[in-house]
Hints:
2 copies of one chain form a homodimer.
Chain A: E1 3-8, H1 16-31, E2 35-40, H2 46-57, H3 63-87, E3 92-95, H4 97-100, E4 102-104, E5 113-116, H5 119-126, E6 130-133, E7 137-139, E8 145-147, H6 152-163, E9 168-173, E10 194-196, H7 197-205, H8 213-221, E11 226-230, H9 239-243, E12 247-250, E13 264-280, H10 285-295, E14 300-305, E15 312-320, H11 324-338, E16 342-355, H12 365-375, E17 380-386, E18 389-395, H13 399-409
Parallel strand pairs in A: 1-2, 1-9, 2-6, 3-6, 9-11, 10-12
Antiparallel strand pairs in A: 4-5, 7-8, 11-12, 13-15, 13-16, 14-15, 16-18, 17-18
Helix pairs in contact in A: 1-3, 2-3, 6-8, 7-8, 10-11, 12-13
Amino acid sequence: MALIVHKYGGTSMGSTERIKNVAARVAKWHDAGHQVVVVPSAMSGETNRLIGLAKEIMGQPDPRELDMICATGEQVSVGLLAMALLAIGKDAVSYAGWQVAIKTDSSFTKARIQSIDDKKVRADLDAGKVVIITGFQGVDEDGNISTLGRGGSDTSAVAIAAALKADECLIYTDVDGVYTTDPRVVSEARRLKTVTFEEMLEMASLGSKVLQSRSVEFAGNYRVPTRVLSSLTDPLLPLQEEANSGTLISFEEDKNMEQAVISGIAFNRDEAKITILGVPDKPGVAFHILGPVAEANIEVDMIIQNQSVDGKTDFTFTVSRGEYQKAMGVLDGVKADIGAASVMGDAKVSKVSVVGVGMRSHVGVASRMFRTLSEEGINILMISTSEIKISVLIDEKYMELAVRALHKAFDLEKE
Amino acid sequence: MALIVHKYGGTSMGSTERIKNVAARVAKWHDAGHQVVVVPSAMSGETNRLIGLAKEIMGQPDPRELDMICATGEQVSVGLLAMALLAIGKDAVSYAGWQVAIKTDSSFTKARIQSIDDKKVRADLDAGKVVIITGFQGVDEDGNISTLGRGGSDTSAVAIAAALKADECLIYTDVDGVYTTDPRVVSEARRLKTVTFEEMLEMASLGSKVLQSRSVEFAGNYRVPTRVLSSLTDPLLPLQEEANSGTLISFEEDKNMEQAVISGIAFNRDEAKITILGVPDKPGVAFHILGPVAEANIEVDMIIQNQSVDGKTDFTFTVSRGEYQKAMGVLDGVKADIGAASVMGDAKVSKVSVVGVGMRSHVGVASRMFRTLSEEGINILMISTSEIKISVLIDEKYMELAVRALHKAFDLEKE
């Protein structure tokens, strides 16, 4: 008997028929003798509907009140799923985050989980019940409802699995695992049976939509064995087959028998690059440029400062394309303050990254990557590296070409 | 400065535009120096949508889980209304029932309020905030969400007003007060400036839809001055004019200057009558007939047992028309057990009632009522009386005629 946490996304919970499918799948695990905790998202479209109502009333919705409203989507989901289980004769009970309680800080709309009380849940599991807990939300120390931000249900599921010391956290989603790259771009893309926590973290932060970054961080920090698998299979698929499907995020690098140099290629089409030219090179210049950008709540990704020439330097950074205009506006305001010559930007750039723990022990990954791009005539605009990934910024029109060429160059189509 | 509780129904909260109107009205009261607590219902249609989802999954939804789901409608409303107030510069905060806390028993879907903690609310009011509390719901001692049943937001508002010892509870609704009878039936129907708590209670239980019976009981038990008034007036109507509009439910009979013998005529079209013939007249017969009916959760209204002849009696009672078939089914089952000759029923009957505290001091109300019906050629099928009301059951085709004739006979069109 194992303790398993299931997480289902909004698409899997998208209609009462689909909720019945989820119940059938959960019942199968429970029938096999496992203790099951389920963390569902809101029904697809519901969170957007609620945010839409809020914005009709208040252009910039008050964060506390927005959380009050948005938390209801998951509350409806857990109640419906509990009923779907009760309807097929499974004892089940639903809880909102505050009932568990899942304690968070008070950063409304982007709260962080601080603690989870497992007492109620354990008692229910021991009594043979399936326990269904709202994803995405918690309660702060003053009893206010908080939410974790978009995609927060993944984080809730992993955090609950950590608190309960679950044997595995199964993230059911509309893809059947983590691929070497997006199969829509490279048809030879191959599903990975395992991926290390660190690789998954890089992939998540580099734009892979499979798992939210924070949930991967949580899984890593608390060493929660987490599996990404499909919610679109027949719910009555034999349990052993389902239990081994998808991609397992592992913590045991040495057991990773695939031994590939790199595991995958991540990309993010919607990047924008901004360069401030002729900046006097003196202490504090990076702060004077990026401070106002951060204050405007714009997230900066890659940052490069050129070698200074004649006491002047150029400063380049990237933001997501949706924030490009806003960032340019901010910099127009600070250009004079910092004595820069001019600001130029390019909103038609994309980022391509190769990721793999194998880089640690293999030299030549960077050179193979740069040679491949060079052979395809693709100019590299910026480079950024970490221990297990290399990212390049390129013209967006070359993005698919770059991903396909790199996928082939690193033999990712091969098992 | 007074402490005022406002309650708004689902129609008043039916769109973001209407919610902004509610905010403008609330702000007007706050601007005038009053402390204001607002209890809104779910947006119109929302509770039905949620119940519909639940029924798609479970024909007879589990009550605890149904409450989990249905409580979200009001949670969205309070958040949106708080935002609408914040958007016009009013400090406001929303609470779900469990946050206040409004404690109830564990009778899910029809819970009863046991206590309301006023500490948090008072602190917010003293800090100048408008406090917005979900209607319809609370939390039981185990931390489960409970709801009070349909129309429960009226009860929540009155209970909150009682707990806070509010100066007045204003029930804003889509009618502008309590009328001598339904204006759709009698065009001369007149709005009452005041009505006593007891009259209101009779009218509510007799089918007037203006206020839910339980909320009137609460208002009576805790002597909460409660006013029914229109939410359809211009929100910027001068405060004094609005404060004196509608109908006040009073507790001071002697100050009721209208001094009419009766205050209004209530009616309920959808009644059904069931008669069990030839029942052996022995102790326990009423229990043996009505026990199984109550067990089937069917509410019985009027009950008559005839004078026994030759040791046999007839037993007649009424139920709401929607439960007629179910009740007949139950009685077919018990007919043999009690040795009754036969069961007959009539689902085309209606109830008409005259209500008024003036009956206590005026004789002849019954005779005037019966003479009026007789003059119109309307046969009376059953009669039931209380200290301040007389109800008759008649053929449904005469219902409007009876109401109009009685309205005229008791001079209700005159101030």
